Amino acid sequence: MAAAFAALVSLQNNLRLIHNHPNHTFPFEDEQILSLRRSVCFLIDFMESYDNSHGVRRETAEALEIRIARAAQVAEDVIEAHMVDQIRCGKTRPSRFLLDLQKVALGMDYMKRKASNVKARSGMLDPPPHSSSSSSAAAAQSTPLPTSSMVGFDDILLKLLDLLTGVPLSRRVIPIQGMGGMGKTTLAINAFQHPCIVQHFDVCLWATISQEYSIQKILAQLLSCMRRSTSGTVGEMRERLYKSLYGLRYLIVLDDMWTLEAWDDMNVKFLFPDTNDGSRVVVTTRNANVAKHLSDCRVAMSFLDEDSSWYLFCQNAFAKQQGCPPELEETAKKIVARCKGLPLAIVVVGGHLRKSPTILVYWENVAQSILYSTGNDEQCLNVLSLSYRYLPAHLKPCFLLLGAYPEDAKIYAHDVLKIWIAEGFIQHSNTCILEEVATQYLRDLFMRNLILVDRYDYKGVYRFKVHDLVRELCLQTAKKEEFLYVFETSGAIITRERRVVTSLTSESILQQVNLRYLNVDLVYIPRPVLYYLPSSISFLWNLQILTIIVPDQSKVIAPYGIWEMLQLRQIEVDTICLIEPLPADQANQLVMRNLYTLFKVENFRLSEEVCKRIPNVRELQLSYCDEVSWYYCPRNLGCFHQLQNLALKFDGNSKWREFAKSLAFPSSLRVLHLNGCGVDWEELTMMVGSLPHLEKLLLLRNSVIGSVWTPVEGKFCHLKFLIIYACHDLVCWNADNSHFPVLRHLYLRNLSKLIEFPSGIGEIATLEHIDMRFCSASSTISAMRTLAEQVELANESLRLTVYFRGDEETMESFKNEVREEGLTSSTNLSLHLLSSK
User: Which of these, 244, 262, 682, 734, has the minimum number of CB atoms within 10 Å of its CB?
Assistant: First the structure.
């Protein structure tokens, strides 16, 4: 049960945090405290072994889980109430506290004895090691993430491609219809991204509708695809979209349409122009009546046949080139048969078994657990519930919390990890920080096919979605286990209120001393303005994540007390000014050892005192807009030996050049953003080219000046991502494959003076993608020539994305030159031509 495990881990984390807090007394040597800690550790092990006992579920243990969850929550309430008394009054009532502590310690000890009896009767095994270990964290770095593919739908894909590119020329609506989990969206994505579709249509737009839709949000999605403004009324947005599409051959995908009302409310006839140029609108829907109403020419999804089902299962259940062990094949085929050709069910069960022991009795238990059903969504939910039942205990609360996000929401991994940590779901590890453990938890959910990755970054999963049937499973299970509270009338979902608050006034902060995650939105206050955080914020003894959103040109001023908030892990404020901490002697100096993320600090003085206070910071964003002064101690930046991700923004004045040149970058740096510092290309190479771990370099607006960049061999040896944006002086880039030997992705933006793309870049063996947007015509065409040369040399792995914009004369000249040289024939080229009008 997710609630029980989450409550135990949260209690364990609180006991550890209080034990290490220098400002609050706590009788940790008391036998009752020691007994409580032992009971919690035992019960966590019990929950893990219970969930890993080959799927054997015991009704007595399930009932016990509810009692364990309640006992752990009561214990946590008692301990936090003690902390509240200390913070508010500077003292506590020891007799009352010790009496309450005795009760909860006895209660947890009773739960321990009951769990011991259940464990002895059922013959449970000890839990296997999981992702909090260093080995699993290392595996997260080395194991490649699988990619989604279509199996058994080749004929349907070909049919859809033919409908999209064939006659008639009039605008055509093509519904894709099938029950949940059939692969409608996957089919649409495969067509949407197919090279022949990218070449055939001028623009391709995508919007997700969902059950609870908003016309304004749908229009905003479509306009965003064309990089058009999403402001204004619905009427203004309609007109803007219509005018933007007029005269273009477009493909629009409307994903997950539930009712005809959504179609009627969009008023498609007056939204998508029909100029007889072969434009298409694809609609995915479960509702056969919707599909029938929209068009007679529809694509119907069917169940997979036996061979395709088996192939899809093996793809997801076994490592590449291994296949099914002979001793498991009969049982495995029984499992596949019970999925009844439903792709989502096969993929999820396969993903679960990929992470499970290859023991016959375990697989037989899985086969017996899959229930037959004559329903549609019910059939899939029965199979999906199996994947939850067999999830390791530490993943269950993390998985169920995903149900709190709206249907079809694009979920950012960074936000999810913050909430998991704040909720106390992530177990402390002696070898990894909590963020690394949480990242591995997310990766495990992905490897089990329980989330759909929408976008990757250098760390792995960047953004993802949850299939609506998987989300429904989360909601049903969370409600059953009393893990989330779901309000039927509004669909609102909340968790335990002590943990996450998204709106808070300064007057009420003192009443929320047990908060772990504080998110304050100040976008509606008058601007520009200075917002002073109240000194009472330091009373939030357990606050781990502080996020503040302010309007443009506004700032947050933090009090001295923020340096006493030792549990803070992340400070993310649009612009924050941190007052330098008061000097303290070595014995009384408070060190924020848990602070790993500090974003958007303005004019931050990197004094020795500051560097000592935040020694473990890993992500740092700084901006400077004051008068240049050595007061900011730029050389001390090198003292952050754990720093991995650094962003530096200057106001663009040339006065910062010498300051930037004096910066000392730590060798641990992996990602570097530079903006407005104005160093020249040679200085840049000397400053950062030798950093041994630098993988991603972003050179943003006016970060580098000078017309010629001639890189030096032996520099940038580990650089994988390079982004050059609005470095307007760059004319000549003399680079070849020896200068960036392991580069994978190259992004060039707004380089209007660049004469030629360096063809030697195309010879880098690891290069996967070049993305050029709004660069000069000559450099864009030379990049297309480089791609053509690489294709001739049988380099099929390199892709080129081009966005080119200009006036009518420039566009015509560009098209003619591209046409004459035959540069658009490669399927590895994605070319987008945008008018500047």
Answer: 734
Per-residue pLDDT tens over the stretch 524-566:
666 668 888 888 888 788 888 998 888 878 889 999 889 988 8
In a shared domain, residues 344 and 373: yes
- Does 781 share its domain with 765? yes
CATH number of the domain enclosing 363: 1.10.8
Q: Which are the contacts of 267, defined by CB distance < 8 A and separation ≥ 6? A: 238
DSSP 21: -
Cβ neighbours of residue 795 under 8 Å, at least 6 residues apart? 762
Same domain, 96 and 223: no
Is it the case that residue 83 has pLDDT exceeding 80?
A: no
Domain holding 834, by residue range, is: 706-837
The DSSP line for 177-191 is: E--TTSSHHHHHHHH
* The two three-digit tokens of residue 88, written as one number: 């508010």
The residues near 255 (Cβ < 8 Å, ≥ 6 apart) are 184, 185, 188, 206, 207, 208, 209, 284, 408
Nearest one of 83, 64, 70 to 14, comparing CA atoms: 83
Q: Count of domains in the chain? A: 4
Look at residues 323, 346, 378 and tell me which one is the last residue of a structural domain.
Answer: 378
Both 161 and 296 in one domain: the answer is yes
Which residue matches tokens 């933090």?
Answer: 558
Which tokens belong to 209? Answer: 């509708």
Strand partners, 649: 623, 675
Looking at the structure, do residues 829 and 714 belong to the same domain, yes or no? yes
178 CB-near residues (< 8 Å, 6+ apart): 184, 286, 300, 301, 302
Q: In the 3-class helix/strand/coil scheme, how is 696-759 assigned residue by residue?
A: EEEECCCCEECCEECCCCCCCCCCCEEEEECCCCCCEECCCCCCCCCCCEEEEECCCCCCCCCH
Query: pLDDT-based confidence at 88, cuts 50/70/90?
Result: low
Residue 632 lies in a domain: no
Look at residue 439 and tell me if it is in a domain. Answer: no
Same domain, 169 and 272: yes
* Residue 52 token pair: 């890993």
* Angle formed by the axes of helices 434-447 and 134-142, nearest 10°: 60
Q: Find the helix or strand (DSSP H, E) in which 572 lies.
A: strand 570-578
pLDDT band at 321 (very low <50, low <70, confident <90, very high): low
pTM of the predicted model over 0.90? no
The mean pLDDT of 119-137, rounded to a whole number, is 51
Q: What was the pLDDT predicted at 61? A: 64
- Residue 461 has phi, psi (to 5 degrees) of -70, 125
